[in-house]
């Protein structure tokens, strides 16, 4: 039994040997609400996004992440509401969560706002025993075939934004719950660790048609080393962009995106692994699809001069 519990801790990434537990996004600029609940309601439209990430193609039981989110402002534009649904699958394990968020937006100047947001919900962790080969085939620990743990979860964030720049800080998994997969468990080494995310970006005008936007994200969870995501993209008429990114100790990414008639957004990124996994993996694919529900009232609020 003890060996099984240790194995579960390793699989779910709750030991000191692994890094972050939260979902990873190469296109973090376009999944910013999934990272920071304070982003909710910061744009003059209701934003729906679906993201599909297939990591380390070619590696058996490699991670797959699916997210669906929606957020938007209230009638006054001072508050934002939204929800996030996600599933993270790694081998025999599956993590599914749902969160609902609330944010409040403070007008700091004519063009700058500060949003504070919080989200709360639940996470369910599941283990499919049919996908695990046990050293002892007579071990009855997984006799039920499926083990699960359900815990509450919460996230806090702050978001400073302007037409030209943004600064984001978010703290996922602030409750730090422990996970118990068996009724007879009195202790466990499986726990949700607190994370620290910070990001910033700025848009520079190259001409009437072109902009360039460098950005960076910093991620930290103890005891893993700090990880940096550096991204740069070139934007044409707020409709087409191409870019690249570098994630320390992980991968190099290329990406492309398109906004159709200000309502439909498509994004694709491809990661080239820079670690030893490159000898076994064909890379990582990430697809993002977004729909914007824009109303005349929201545009007249003047919350933002662009739809980006």
Describe the structure.
The chain has 308 residues and is mainly beta. Helices cover 6% and strands 50% of the residues. It contains 3 helices and 15 strands. The protein has helices at 2-11, 32-35, 296-300, and strands at residues 46-54, 64-73, 79-90, 93-107, 113-128, 146-161, 165-171, 196-202, 204-205, 210-220, 227-236, 240-247, 251-260, 264-273, 284-293. Strands 1-2-3-4-5-6-7-8-10-11-12-13-14-15 form a 14-stranded antiparallel beta barrel. A hairpin with a 4-residue loop joins strand 9 and strand 10. The longest helix is centred in the N-terminal third of the chain and has 10 residues, at 2-11. The protein is globular and about 70 Å long. The protein starts with a helix and ends in an 8-residue tail after the last helix.
